[in-house]
Amino acid sequence: MFDFKSLPSEVFPDNFLWGGATAANQLEGAWDQDGKGPSIADALPGGKERFAIAAQPDFKWKIDAKKYRYPNHRGIEHYQRFKEDIKLFAEMGFKCYRFSIAWSRVFPKGDETTPNEAGLVFYDQLIDECLKYNIEPVVTISHYELPLHLATEYGGWKNRKLIAFYENFAKVVLQRYSQKVKYWMTFNEINSAFHFPVMSQGMVPSNGSNDKNNVFQAWHNQFVASSLAVKYGHQLNPALKIGCMILYATSYAFDANPENQMANLKQMQDFNFFCADVQVRGKYPASTARMLHDYHVDPKKLEITDEDLALIANNTVDYIGFSYYMSMVIDETHADADASSGNLIGGVKNPFLEASDWGWQIDPTGLRIALNELYDRYQKPLFVVENGLGAYDKVEADGAIHDEYRIDYLRKHIQAMGDALTDGVDLMGYTPWGCIDLVSASTGQMSKRYGFIYVDLDDEGNGTLDRLRKDSFYWYQKVIQSNGARM
């Protein structure tokens, strides 16, 4: 079925957190059940033009079921079938499971003072089901699922009022689950707003996304909110580990031309490091003034108080979670260079790399570089909380799914993590993205599959939703059993 490669058994530490990752808005479904309110993800149509639609000047977060399909509304019905799914994760041997708590399931509009008890009960059950199998929950407090009301009525994260709304939400879930959940992250891929603020900041052109003043104000408001969550979580239980989460794309200059080298340095400072610097080091980096100038942001228009800065300085995160899918190449000197696509980012094609079915450049060595760059800069524990291959899968007549391409991708990235550990990097764990097939965040497709578990559902919403084990399911089971020694 597949060949295993061997590594020295001592490469990965005994307490290494092997698992998988999902997000509430991409698999739960039940978008309007048991008191849940709509989120921004519920207002994004499915299909390859999802982001193009959201980028239109007249897009105003309206749900138009006559015109569009909304795959997130159904997801994969994890809300009803979570026990079945967690049992499958346990069969693979998961040590941890990263998932998110849907803000609008707990506070339907986001600005209420009293939570929706039915939403909390669901997460009580989900967490208890994980613990039943000795699976550590790893919870993202906000993962691309801002309550829709906060985007339409408050304008998204550029409004400082959202700090208090998030603080209330974070306090409720931290208080409820702090004795059961050790690992937390405050915001998913917070730096993704650098390219596309719709997902993480709830802003589109009609409510201010094209004005970088709004993007930077939104970031600052999120930094303050994150610090408040860290402060409260540590007061509740000093043993909690609360991290930030960024999208990391190792970047290379196209050539030795100093213009491209300088452009790549700015890419690293602005995209890979800016948000992490604030949350890990507790202060804005020295490059901030240059960055604001480059993006035509007027510092005098940003509402940043001394109290904010003190809060950020005194409540830094315990670890750095990050997603890594691909690397990118920066080229400022060749106008005719072929463009590449990727996880909310672009760049030009790298002739030394292959690409996925969706054009994402596959670069395992880039993960080793990313781990070294992050650890050299911050000296904080790292956690690879997203990594995986979106691909078309075929179900054979006997029900088998032979996804050797996914095994090859994951094996090489795990090897890169092992190499980084020998480099001296402090790496906590690995949760490959979409451990069960779910709705793609970028396209709303089901056909863009990441999981070890196949879900019988197509892009048009047809299928039984039956769960099938892929070849990668059994392969990853052996990887975990051997603590990464057999791949």
TrEMBL record:
PROSITE patterns: GLYCOSYL_HYDROL_F1_1, GLYCOSYL_HYDROL_F1_2. The active site is at E386. One of its GO terms (molecular function) is beta-glucosidase activity. Keywords: Glycosidase, Hydrolase. One of its GO terms (cellular component) is cytosol. Pfam families: Glyco_hydro_1. GO terms for biological process: carbohydrate catabolic process. The keyword Transmembrane helix does not apply. The keyword Acyltransferase does not apply. PANTHER family: 6-PHOSPHO-BETA-GLUCOSIDASE ASCB-RELATED, GLYCOSYL HYDROLASE. Belongs to the glycosyl hydrolase 1 family. This is Glycoside hydrolase family 1 protein.
